[in-house]
Specification:
It comes from Pseudobacillus wudalianchiensis. GO terms for molecular function: nucleotidyltransferase activity. It holds the Pfam family NTP_transf_3. The protein has 205 residues and is an alpha/beta fold. It has one domain: Spore Coat Polysaccharide Biosynthesis Protein SpsA, Chain A. It has 6 helices and 10 strands; from the N terminus they run βββαβαβαβαβββαβα. Strands 1, 4, 5, 6, 7, 8, 9 and 10 form an 8-stranded mixed beta sheet that branches. Strands 2-3 form a two-stranded antiparallel sheet. It is globular. The model has no long low-confidence stretch (mean pLDDT 91).
Length: 205
């Protein structure tokens, strides 16, 4: 049984609502995407893949990552939306069947314990179910990220287009679990100037 779990960070977008590449926004002592990568690398993942597109060369230049589990993957079709990055990340693993946790590149406040809790829940379900399944964390009845996908295949998300997510993804799975967590960080994405200002205040405090 394949119980290896890979992490995929989706960070290829153009940051149109921010007006500049949010992956490279300064936040405390690091850049936004750097915070996300560092937090994901605290997990027990076999491989960590960051899918980038817009300003890819600059991101790689400004965010050197030394962990041997880490790899950058380029999504040249990033204008097509987030689903293209998800499919590109899964494709890059080169596996017929995979288990992945999908993170968003603009959620820097997820707690290490939350990542561990979702991971362990996923590993347990890998042993219980043979069919594809998903686990989504929920805070105060609102679903967030990262999302765990178990026993998925290259074709699992082949029908998704653009920024389709949520319901379209959920419909792919017969087995779905909502995992309650006490971590607001699963919801705190930084995609507007106002959200960025609030994030800076959060770091300063």
């Amino acid at each position: 049984m394949n119980t290896h779990v890979h992490a995929i960070i989706l960070a290829a977008g153009t940051s149109s609502r921010m007006g500049r590449p949010k992956q490279l926004l300064p936040l405390g002592e690091h850049l936004l995407l750097g915070h996300v990568i560092n937090r994901v690398l605290t997990g027990e993942f076999t491989k960590v893949t960051a899918v980038i597109g817009h300003e890819a060369a600059l991101i790689q230049e400004l965010l050197p990552v030394k962990d041997s589990r880490f790899q950058w993957v380029l999504n040249e079709d990033y204008h097509s939306g987030q689903s293209s990055s998800l499919k590109r990340g899964i494709e890059s693993l080169g596996l017929q069947q995979a288990n992945v946790m999908v993170f968003l590149g603009d959620l820097p406040f997820i707690e290490e314990q939350t990542i561990h809790t979702i991971y362990q829940s996923g590993v347990r379900m890998l042993k219980e179910y043979k069919a594809p399944f998903m686990i989504r964390p929920v805070y105060k009845n609102i679903p967030g990220h990262p999302v765990f996908f178990g026993h998925i295949h290259q074709e699992t998300f082949s029908g998704l287009d653009g920024d389709q997510g949520g319901r379209a993804i959920v419909e792919q799975f017969a087995y779905k679990r909502r995992l309650l967590v006490e971590d607001e960080g699963i919801l705190l994405d930084i995609d507007t100037p106002i959200a960025y200002e609030k994030a800076k205040e959060r770091f300063e405090n």
